[in-house]
Sequence to fold (451 residues):
Amino acid sequence: MREEVTGAEVIERAGAAEAPARLALGSGLTMLAAATWLMLKGVEPFATSYYLFAWYSTLLAADGAVALAGGVGERGRFFLLGRPRFLLTLLAWSAVAWLFFELLNFRLRNWYYVFVPAEPWLRWPSIVLSFATVLPAVLVSEALLARLGVARHARSAPFRLMPRRLAWIRFAGWAMLLLPLLWPRYFFPLVWGAVVLLLDPFVRRRDPARSLLGDLEAGRPGRILRLLAGGGAIGLLWEMFNIEARGKWIYTVPGFERFKLFEMPVLGFLGFPPFALECYVIWQTLVVAGLATPRRGPAVPRPRAARIGAAIAATAFAVGILAGMERWTISSVRPALAELEHLDIPAPRLLPLGLDAFDLANATPLSLARAVGAPPHEASEWIHTARLVTLRGIGTDNARLLRAAGVRSIDDLAAADPAALASRLAALAPGRITDARVRVWVRAARRIAGI
Fold:
């Protein structure tokens, strides 16, 4: 006998199904607000590793929003949390995928990192966990827009993909990848699109339903439009979460070192929408290759040995790129007060005060002098040194090099000629500091000095 369900029971069941989603949304937003407040107060580890706390909170809130959106049959269903194996492989491959772009950056030199965790045992895990959020952020944003019905009924003229067109698409992909590597100063923007043209034909051949080219063939551009829109929104969040954190990235894009919104050159925001397409295609490539668990349905069959081999290769690749980042991309680690002793600051006398390098940089000479029983002029020298160390991610090691080059304070740095200073630093430590980083430092010093 068929069970009759009353309207009240339907509402009650719907409310029960939505409870976890509301909890995820509320918890994510609460954790994001708390992490932001603690970061702004300079509380560690939130001040240095804010990106980690902010993005995992955001992903939780976004997944809760996805589960609350949509019509009957969709509400209450998470995107990220709905299938643990999908989430785990997505996080793992996300880190590897972004490390590929870090590899390209060894040549492009478009960004670098400052004030990363100083402890070696903590630095690499925190970097990997940060990069693990990239693909989830892009995919969950598209999922949320899809649940909200954005571009659901968008239609376009079918795009015919003859073999010759596919050959030209692949050729364009290779050109867009190789030109930036050969002439990075002029062609660097092309990397934010090359991966789509190189990999999506492979996805289309294996499973047209997962392919962006397949969407265009069918005249359904909705997913592409949602990825582009979501990529723009996610890019804005990436840069917002980066700007006030101590551990952060700084852009040195040729010709675009000025006129920034947050840390990103204004025109650089145009790169986030095509980057979202790249993220989507990378993920679908892994799925159709049988190396990742899809959100729905069974994984593509793949020999166990092949999966293990891919995991080993990915791990070796990650270790190699992380080692390269230590050499070429990480400019400084979080400065410890004890290390400032190498810059003539009596750290043993200051440590009992519970200060860190940033507290010292914000101290006033008179109050510091009274606290440690030192002459005000000495306290003033310590503060000026700390301000130099904490300026734009300079850090302790770079401050020592600047001191050897005759720069002992922000005023000295503001008065320096960037090209001449970069030349002196190159003579002291060949290959250590790029000209672009010196320009970042000098420009920041001049803003403070009012020059």
Remarks:
- Strands lie at 111-114, 248-251, 260-261, 264-265.
- The radius of gyration is 25 Å.
- The chain has a mean pLDDT of 91.
- Residues 291 and 310 are 8 Å apart (CA to CA).
